[in-house]
Amino acid sequence: MKHLKYLVIGAGGTGGSIGAYMTEAGKDVTLIARGEHLKQMQEHGLRMETTARGNYTVQPIKAVDMEHYEERPDVVFVCVKGYSLEETIPFIRKVAGQDTIVIPILNIYGTGGRMQEKLPGLLVTDGCIYIAGEIKEPGTILLRGDIFRIVYGVRNSEELRPELFMVAQDLKESGIEGVLSDNIRRDALQKFAYVSPMAACGLYYHVSAGEVQKTGNPRDTFVKLMKEIDALAVAMGVPFLVDIVATNLRILDTLNPEASTSMQRDVYAGKHSEIDGLIYEVVRMGQRYDVPVPTYEMIAKKAKADGLC
Fold it and tell me: In a 3-state reduction of DSSP, which class is residue 307?
């Protein structure tokens, strides 16, 4: 039986956790990282501080920078922030074989289709992830909560390959829930309908999950934002098959009260953030599909007034 070789671009809360779990399960995985985080992993392994598994260190773990990766992967998980996506394209072109499958796992909706245009010879799926993880310090990932689910799939059914089923099995054997979706447009938009409202609400009120878990204005705003995404889903022809508000409130209410979105953390740290794809893009989608999104417009207006772009 063929064993897949995995490459994970980005070793933050998402990519680092994937690499750690799959390495522990004996899968062939290499992480692409840089700076002090890479140095710590190479010298001391990757330390995981988790709710589900306790604290432990995965050592050794394969980790290099882009310049020193010399293998030919079967599957590439792209786990960078939206603003860093462009720099991964030439690297993927260089290392991929003709049968390499690219699975982007970003917060930004529609990433796979945009990458496919720039990687015409490869199969690029769409994907999303449910996880609450972040780099605590170089060489250490903090993973809150029990949820760890990767959803991915092809946009056109004729592109389905046996290897995609093998990925799901490898994830399962690694303790990750892997879901090969039969409607990835809907499933990715459903994930977006959580992370985008949570990021927008958290930024607007400057709060973490705990404040949104309680009755009050942040929770009410979170609900309004989800309903606006719900209306967009209908207009886009991919209506949700679940009550998106009830579903996402259940997810929210299981989170550690201190959890926040990576977009918020980046904004607070004065770094580049995914605000364009998570907030401003929804305003553009509303215009494109003629769907009112007044709550998003309110938050976008304040964010722009604060100089966030």
Answer: coil
